[in-house]
């Protein structure tokens, strides 16, 4: 086990406004610029990861980057400057930030907390990993490990000739048997079929020199839905609706090519700087009609962040598109109230959680958030019905209802929300 993996917890405060928090992972870069008080970017400005409603903040004010050397801040030539400890930073010069640093941008203060996270992945140097993946070190730079899972790990990278950021997902060495490698590649090929901005793009599937497969993917410079809710708490209904609309669009695209995701959950939803929610994590995806056995039998899902968002039929029977709609409903429930529909606890929580998902009704969303529109509460609970036949039947139907609710609610819509969906706009 190693503890080289860091994350940055960023807190933004301004007088008279509630603080906002952001979680930044290694390899990510957040652009800071002018936007709105609820964190939405200015549609007339740049796509920013941290949007500040402040006339003293430039549209492209500063950038933060978390790399192997730590967290750095760069002023992008802003009109009113970026202050660290009361001192104006030189423009276009990277400045290291330590844990506890306080940065002033106009009327806003951004404070930094750096956190170490234990990683179970083997510790590889940048050069060792580049050689393993057969990537020329004069074309690629690795920028740190973004995530570590039970089956793979993800590094952020920079392709120097094109000046593009990307992510590299590598299968663990312990899972290099032919069947595991074949599954890894097959699921990546499924995800490649989805040509929509609301899915994390996979640009290439390659093979390392030791035979294991790896993916070259889009690197999303933004938080996951899991990180965002854990940092901020439950989201306002308009924000949650925009996110759900993008996910419904992604699921509509998947349905057109008979793909079932089977793992729609907050940690698989990432936010781009332009405000689009992107669905990733296709490690459990299947084609409709493929032989899908019980998750209890295969052990394919762990007792972690995915399980509370899975539909009852996933534990015993074959899944279809309505299974993903349950995951969408459970994710929307989490966005709105800060917890999944079911929360079994205690030493035997896993079988108890299975039982709750299969047999119990979730607590009413309206009990947690009494101010929510009755139509929204009704939609979420319809998506969470035990019997797939009693849920909404298509992602397009769900999208239409979400957009109707979004139009009826306060505030403008986040750029890109639901932008991939609807049969007239799907590209597959």
What does this structure look like?
It is a single chain. The chain has ten helices and 20 strands. Helices cover 26% and strands 26% of the residues. The strands form five sheets. The chain has a six-stranded antiparallel sheet with strand order 2-1-11-10-7-8, with helices on one face. It has a five-stranded mixed sheet with strand order 4-3-5-6-9, with no helix packed on it.
Sequence-ordered SSE layout with sheet pairings:
Layout: E1 2-14, E2 17-24, E3 29-34, E4 50-52, E5 62-67, E6 70-75, E7 83-84, E8 87-88, E9 95-97, E10 102-105, E11 108-119, H1 126-132, E12 140-148, E13 152-159, E14 164-171, H2 178-192, E15 202-207, E16 213-218, H3 225-232, H4 237-256, E17 259-260, E18 269-271, E19 277-279, E20 286-287, H5 295-298, H6 321-337, H7 349-359, H8 365-368, H9 374-383, H10 395-408
Parallel strand pairs: 3-4
Antiparallel strand pairs: 1-2, 1-11, 3-5, 5-6, 6-9, 7-8, 7-10, 10-11, 12-13, 13-14, 14-16, 15-16, 17-20, 18-19
Helix pairs in contact: 4-6, 4-10, 6-9
Please give the share of residues in helix: 25-40%
**Overall pLDDT, averaged?**
82
- Report how far the terminal alpha carbons are from each other: 42 Å
Structural class, please? alpha+beta
Count every helix, treating DSSP H or I runs of 4 or more residues as helices: 10
- Strand-residue proportion: 25-35%
Topology order in helix (H) and strand (E) letters: EEEEEEEEEEEHEEEHEEHHEEEEHHHHHH
Uncertain segments = 293-299, 410-428
Strands in their spatial order, largest beta sheet: 2-1-11-10-7-8
Instruction: Note the overall shape.
Output: globular
Radius of gyration, in angstroms, nearest whole number:
21 Å
Strand segment count: 20
What does the main sheet amount to?
A: 6 strands, antiparallel
